Structures are given as structure tokens and as C-alpha cells.
Amino acid sequence: VERLRFPCCYSTFGCPGNVSLSGKVTHEAACSYRPFSCPLPGAQCRWEGSLAEMNKHLTVEHTHVAQFLGHEVVLNIAGATFPAASSWVLLQRCWGRDFLTTIDTDDGESFRAYVKIVAEPEEAAAFSYKLQLGLNRQKLIWQSTPRNLRATENLDYFAIDSHTVETFLEH
Q: Which of 9, 8, 29 is nearest to 18 (CA)?
């Protein structure tokens, strides 16, 4: 039985792998050809596809996603209100890659912001991003490496509450 080879279940996505029965589960869990799910937080979207299809999916199916070109985006959030349990996402194209910046809240009072790269997981380490809150002399800066789209844990994000945001905007 160990000599028998079985195609990877992601062969339709291009995987050429033929693996033994005992190695099939391990291979398929880590297969680089396995499809990506829609990366939008809280979305009821069931789309799955390749990285090459991701940009088209986001821009055609999720027209509410803001799109920017260039390595710097400046957002003015003065007076902005977020309803409880909401997310705001922007798609930014720079350095030949797409990045998703997400700002979300569960209660409208505390916020999380993070960036994901629309690329293979190993490419994330080659980039860094900086989120900056503040005007004039006072600035609060968060700098990190973008997450890859396969990352599911929330280990690395900029967290801030609305009182701190207002304090920075007032000074």
C-alpha cells in the first residue's frame, strides 16, 4: 500500500504531487497549491482561489474595498465613527505586490489595525509596514512585518482605543 501514489487533492489547482497514503494528509495541509479563502474579515464570502485571482476577486466582488497605488497612504480619520463589530479594508498596490490593510473593531471603542501581503507566505518577511497616528509634533507609530494570507492568528497588530485617537487628533 505504501508504494501506491495518490494525486494531491489540489491537483486541479496545479499541484503535481503524487504522495503515499500515509503522507497525503501532511502534504495537503501544507500544499502551496491549496486555494486561498477570501481574506476579508467577517465576510460571508465563500470564495476560494489562487493568489493570481485574488486581486480580481477583491476588486470585482467587494467593491467597498478602497484601492490605492503607491507606497504611502494617508487617511484622515478625524470625526470618523465606526459602528460596533465593523471592519474597514483597503487594498494597496506597491513594489509589485498587493497589501490589505484592515482596521476593525468589536465595540466601536477599541481598534485593531494590521497589514497582510497578497503573496506566498515566505515573501512577507521581505517587507515591513508602518502605521502612524498623529498630527504635527505628536505621533504614535507601529512598525511591523505584514502577515501572510495563510496566517490565522492575531499575534501582531496595532491596538488603540478611541480616547487615545481623540487625544492625538486634538493636539
A: 8
Residue 171 CA to residue 153 CA, distance in Å, equals 35
Convert the pLDDT of each residue in 93-104 to its tens digit: 988 889 998 888
Question: Which residues, at least 6 apart from 55, have a Cβ–Cβ distance to it below 8 Å?
Answer: 91, 98, 118
- Look up cell 497578497; give the residue: 118
Question: If you compute the radius of gyration of the chain from its CA atoms, what whole number of angstroms results?
Answer: 19
State the distance between the two ends of the chain, measured CA to CA, in whole angstroms: 71
The Cα 160–Cα 165 span in angstroms is 7
* Cα distances (Å, whole numbers) of residue 165 to 81, 83, 85: 11, 16, 18
The DSSP bridge pattern shows strands 97-105 and 86-94 to be antiparallel
Task: State the Cα–Cα distance between residues 142 and 144, nearest whole angstrom.
Answer: 7
pTM across the whole model: 0.77
Return the ∠ at Cα 67 (arms to 167 and 71), rounded to 5°: 70
| Cβ-contact 90, 77 below 8 angstroms | no
